[in-house]
Amino acid sequence: MGKIVVVAEKPSVGRDIARVLGCRTGGDGCLIGEKYIVTWAVGHLVTLMEPNEIDPKYEKWSFATLPILPETIPLKVISQTKDQYGKVKKLINDKETDSLICATDAGREGELIFRYIYEKAGCKKPFQRLWISSMTDEAITEGFRDIRPGADYDGLYESARCRSKADWLVGMNASRAFTLKYNTLLSIGRVQTPTLAILVKRRKEIENFKPEGFCTLTADFGDYSGVYFSDKLDPDTRLKQKEDAEAIAEAVKNKTGTVIQAETARKKEAPPQLYDLTSLQRDANKMLGFTADKTLKTAQSLYEKHKALTYPRTDSRYLPPDMIPRVVQTMKLLPEAYQKYVPGALPGGKLPVSKRTIDQTKVTDHHAIIPTAKKADPSKFSEDERKLFDMVARRLLTAFYPWCEYDATKIITKVEEHTFRTTGKVIVTNGWHDVPPLENPPKARKKPPEEGESENPLPPLAEGDIRTVKGTRIKEDKTKPPAPHTDASLLAAMETAGKELDDEELVRQMKGSGIGTPATRAAIIERLLKVGYAQRRGKTLNATDKGVMLIDVVPGELSSPELTGRWELALHEITDGEQDPGRFMDGIARMSSFLVNYARENAASVAFPEEEKRYGKKGSRRTPAVPLQGAVCPICGRGGMRENSHAFSCTEKGCNCTIWKDCLQKGGGPAITGKLLLLLLEKKQLQGSTGILMMKEGKILFYPNGSEVPSVERSMIYVKQH
After folding, report:
1. 408: closest CA among 309, 267, 289?
2. Nearest-angstrom CA–CA distance, 246 and 241
3. Topology of the domain comprising 164-207+484-602
4. Which of 51, 197, 330, 523 lies at a CB distance of 3.0 to 4.6 Å from 559, suitable for a disulfide?
5. How far is residue 613's CA from residue 620's CA, in Å, rounded to a whole number?
6. Is the pLDDT of residue 656 over 80?
7. How confident is residue 501, by pLDDT bands cut at 50, 70 and 90?
8. What does the pLDDT look like over 173-194, one tens digit per residue?
């Protein structure tokens, strides 16, 4: 009787499967047992050929050879891992091998890894598919018991293959065409470019934002206070003119007010849902400061190495009904630190089931991320692994806790013809808030109550009650620009891309697709950073000048989330057998041709900065300086200012004025951009959303909001060290 060869995605996973199957004899790139041989890839072993490998005419980049639309894109073995490919190929084609089992990660990319190896090796053996969401021995054993024919996943493979070819065609054609047009290396992608467009849009919103002043007026009624609001269908508490606020304050001073509305309603706040990958990445960024990429790698380690979490690359926040007994078991096996919270999630020893947690119709390829039914030992985790496991364990418990209940009170008091609103909130049942979101949550800054919002229980008031206005307070403020994106907010924008579209039917169709997939979004963000289209400053992500310029020159179709969302939707339909792969690829070919023609004939005339060049033995990067139009040196007053990738400096010979772009960032200040510097040179002092920026006596200073002392000050005179 012949052998069955099991192909895993990574060596660590292969060894776990081999242990369960009893394959203990070491072989050449494999582990051997009586019935099974377990081997593994090292991620992708096979990929699509480069254009010049298909035809030498593509070696030279030229519009004459564009668009590149080969009938087929042949596969090639990745050179770095060709040895392991050779071992896998030999095993799967061996005459002693009767059949195969695909045991790569249970998702679109895992399917592609196995199928590309299978196709490139010319293998014709029958194969089955192992589909598991956990790496515990029990889950692997159960997966082999429920193994399915490989053909059941042909739709998933078609979707994966279309994704791979679509990225190749759009990326190769658009990157070459726009690089040729602008004579600078430009990386363009089906998914990365619309993601960059989100960052560019936010940067422009911040740069073009013009703060507007407003006032709020609060009246003191003795035992409570209320904020003035305009008596409209959409009540507004903001008064644009201080004179108006002062006039109303004078009109109500010492006057008698009447309560015209007093309502108290019992309200409920649902517990948060279980984690999928994107929501886990967002929360880990907000609470732990992890990047999306770091969260994915940490979760993957907890899944593969420690068997402590279920499959992390999921887009579902639900569990199937057959998981109920396992969830109960998992809770009881959680480390000791969590056991004090378990009774609240298992009242009477039973799991409270609702459609917010248990719903078979909303489980996609994988269910929500939860701890496995295995006694975990957090002392064996790294610090990052321990923190992330802690978040997931607490979320599992929280999701099954009771709702939080509170009484919300709303009071409206009328003084003359002016109305004042008061709100209050009293917790009745803490519910799920009894489980802190982290083991040692950082002390949150107490958020000051809104005007007219009471932190304490309000007095018992009824309609018709009378109060005298004992005093008023006018508070002046300014509207604030939108905050720069973080990993968390960018992931949210990618996930919900398309919701701002005008086409309601398209919005409905695109629900759940967005830009990229949970498994790829972290890599997309890292790619934007790597190619210089975005920068990470602390927690914030900002588009660079190069990124802005790219979005300005590519056609809207490529930078819009609409097209990418349509493509992701089509890929889902291909997986489900609801769309023809050929039709999808025809659309991709047309798009590739359109992008080439657009770059050649319609793209705007823009001069990208010269590419950074390497200097010196250490390969430090410098960008040729370019003049900053309209700027005069603040030190000598004679020279202009020029800009390179790191700083602004004076053009006058002998003047040492240098303003480093990141000189204020350690103190919480902004990066100095050309636009910001021009404004600062003109005004000498700027008020921003985070504080005050000032130029004074040869120094540049930053005062955070509310501080009378600068958090950072830097001299603008650069002294060379000898």
Report:
1. 267
2. 9
3. Topoisomerase I; domain 2 (1.10.460)
4. 197
5. 9
6. yes
7. low
8. 999 999 999 888 899 998 999 9
Q: Is 628 helix (H, G, I), strand (E, B) or coil?
A: strand
Query: Rg of the chain's alpha carbons, rounded to an integer?
Result: 31
- Helix or strand run (H / E) with residue 191: none
User: Which is more confidently placed, 364 or 95?
Assistant: 95
| C-beta atoms surrounding 324 within 10 Å | 15
Copy the structure tokens of residue 407.
């009484």
Cα–Cα distance list, 259 to 34, 419, 457 (Å):
84, 10, 17
d(CA 392, CA 370): 6
Domain boundaries for CATH 2.70.20.10 within the chain = 213-270+404-478
Pairing state between β 404-415 and 418-429: antiparallel
The CB density around residue 638, as the number of other CB atoms within 10 Å, is 12
Q: How far apart are CA 266 and CA 348, in angstroms?
A: 26
pLDDT 10s digits, 704-722: 877 778 888 888 887 654 3
> Which residue in 173, 192, 179, 164 sits closest to 528, CA to CA?
192
Contacts of 653 (CB under 8 A, 6+ apart): none
Q: Which residues contact 242 (CB under 8 A, 6 or more apart)?
A: 213, 215, 474, 476
Cβ burial of 508 (10 Å; 0-12, 13-18, 19+) is exposed
Question: How many residues appear in the chain?
Answer: 722
pLDDT tens for each residue of 599-634: 999 877 777 766 543 333 333 444 556 788 888 999
| Residue 654 pLDDT class (50, 70, 90 cuts) | confident
Helix, strand, coil percentages (3-state) for the chain, rounded to 5, are 40, 20, 40
Query: Which residues have CB under 8 Å from 668's CB, separation 6+?
Result: 690, 691, 702, 704, 711, 712
Q: Where are the beta strands (DSSP E) in 122-180?
A: 127-129, 148-149
For the domain spanning 213-270+404-478, the CATH number is 2.70.20.10
Q: What is the pLDDT of residue 194?
A: 93
Q: Which comes out higher in pLDDT, residue 355 or 442?
A: 355
Burial class from Cβ neighbours inside 10 Å (0-12, 13-18, 19+) for residue 384 reads middle
Residues 315, 367: Cα–Cα separation, whole Å: 8
Cα distance between residue 507 and residue 517, in whole Å: 17
Burial of 335 (0-12, 13-18, 19+ CB in 10 A): middle
Q: Where, residue-wise, is CATH 1.10.290.10 in the chain?
A: 277-399
Which CATH fold would you assign to the domain 3-146?
A: Rossmann fold (3.40.50)
Tens digit of pLDDT for each residue in 259-296?
A: 999 999 999 999 999 999 999 999 999 999 999 999 99
In this prediction, residues 323-335 reach a mean pLDDT of 95
Statement: residue 100 has pLDDT above 70 = yes
- CATH 1.10.460.10 in the chain is located at 164-207+484-602
Mean per-residue pLDDT of the chain: 89
0.85 cut: is pTM over it?
no
Alpha helices in 183-291 (DSSP H): 192-207, 242-252, 277-288
d(CA 66, CA 315): 37
445-452 long-range contacts, Cβ below 8 Å, gap at least 24?
A: 450/227, 450/423, 451/216, 451/218, 451/227, 451/237, 451/475, 452/218, 452/225, 452/226, 452/227, 452/237, 452/420, 452/421, 452/422, 452/423
Pick the CATH number of 277-399 from 3.30.70.60, 1.10.10.10, 1.10.290.10, 1.10.760.10: 1.10.290.10
